[in-house]
Structure of Transcription termination/antitermination protein NusA:
Amino acid sequence: MSIVALPGLKKMIEEISQTHNLPKSAVQQALREALLKGYERYRRAQRLDRFHFEEDYFDNFEVDLDVEEEGFRVLSTKTIVEEVGNTDHHISLKEVQEVASEAQLGDSVVLDVTPDQGEFGRMAAIQTKQVLSQKLRDQQRKLVQEEFEELEGTVLQARALRFERQSVIMALSSGFGHPEVEAELPKREQLPNDNYRINTTFKVFLKKVREGPHRGPQLVVSRASAGLVVYLFANEVPEIEDEVVRIVAVAREANPPSRHVGPRTKIAVDTLERDVDPVGACIGARGSRIQVVVNELRGEKIDVIRWSPDPSTYISNALSPARVEQVLLVNPEGRQAHILVPEDQLSLAIGKEGQNVRLAARLTGWKIDIKDVAKYDQEAEQRKIQAAMQAAADVEEDDYEDEVVDTLNLADSEAQAETTSQEEE
C-alpha cells in the first residue's frame, strides 16, 4: 500500500499534545479529520468540469494514520456491484473476484486510494493545516464539554468576569487547555444579598451543561439552587460526609416574591444512630457549623429541623420556630392538615408574607392551614372538608356519566346507521 510521507509526524503529535493539553489520541483524530478534508480539497480541485459533489460524497473515505512510519494512507470502502456507476463508491464483481473468488454482490471492500506525494498538492496541504487548527479547537471543546458534563450537579469555585444584561458571566477552571471556561449565572439564579464585583469568587452549583454552537460548552450555574445548601452542609458537617446524618429534604426560597422578605431555607435531617443529634450536628458548637453556611449564603436564614416518619411530628417540626399545639391530618389521602397554634404564635407560624408556612408545606409535601386553637371548630371544619370532597366526587361522577352517555349515543348511532344500510341493500 502506498503512503504519503509526513516527516516528523511522531514528534509533531507529541508537541501538539503538550501545547494544547490534549491526549495524543485526540490529536491523532483531529489530524485524520484534517487530512481527509485536505484529500477532499485535492479531489475537488481535480474535477474542474463542474462535477457536483454531494455533501456526504466522501463519507466512505477515511485516513489511516501510521505514526511509526510517519505517513498516512487514504482508504475507500466500496460496494461490489455488477455494473459500476461511480468508481468512488462502487467496484465491479468481476474485478474483485480476480483476487477474491468468494466475493459476492453487495459485499464491501476497502481499497487504498492514496494519491501520489507530489499530486496531493500545495493547496490541499494548506487546507489540511487550516482544518487541523479548527479540529484541535473542536477537540478541546469536546473534552471540556465532557469534563463539565461529569461535574453537572456539583459545586465549583467561580470568579465574576463581567455583566451581560442581567446575567453575570463567571469563570470556572478547566483542565483541558483552557485555564478558564465561561459560565452564565442568570438573574433568577442569583442571591439578592450577593455583591457581584469583578474578580470576586463564589461557590456555585453547576446546574446545566449545554452544547454551544460556536464557543464551546454553555454552562449555567446557580447560587439559588438547593443543591448548593446540601453541598455546604456536607462540606461542613463530618457526620453528613460519613453518612451518619442524612439530609432528607430541602426547601429553599432564595429569591422571595417580595423584596421585604429575605431568603430562607428549611432543611430536614435524620440519623439512625441513637446517640447522635442530627440537628445539633448540623448547627455545631455555639452555631459554628451553620454560621459558615450562612456566611457563604450572605446571611440567608436557615432552619434545620428533625425529620420524622410520623407526618404530624414532621409538620410540627417543619413550622419551627413556631410552637404548635396540635396537628390534625384532616384529609390524609389529599395530604391536607390543619395546624392549631396559640394566638401569639399565629404570625410566627405563618411567617412574613406566608414564607414560613410556604416552605414548611414544600418541605413536607402537605397542604398546611394554620388555625387559631382558641377559635377552631373541629366539627364545622370537618363538615366543610367532607362537603368539598363530596363535591369533587360528584364532579368526577358527572364526568363519568357524561362519558358513558356519549359512548352509548355513539353506539346507538352506529347501530342505526348499520340498520339503515341493511334496509337499503
Remarks:
- The longest strand covers residues 71-81.
- The CA atoms of residues 244 and 275 lie 11 Å apart.
- The mean pLDDT is 85.
- Residues 378-424 form the longest helix (47 residues).
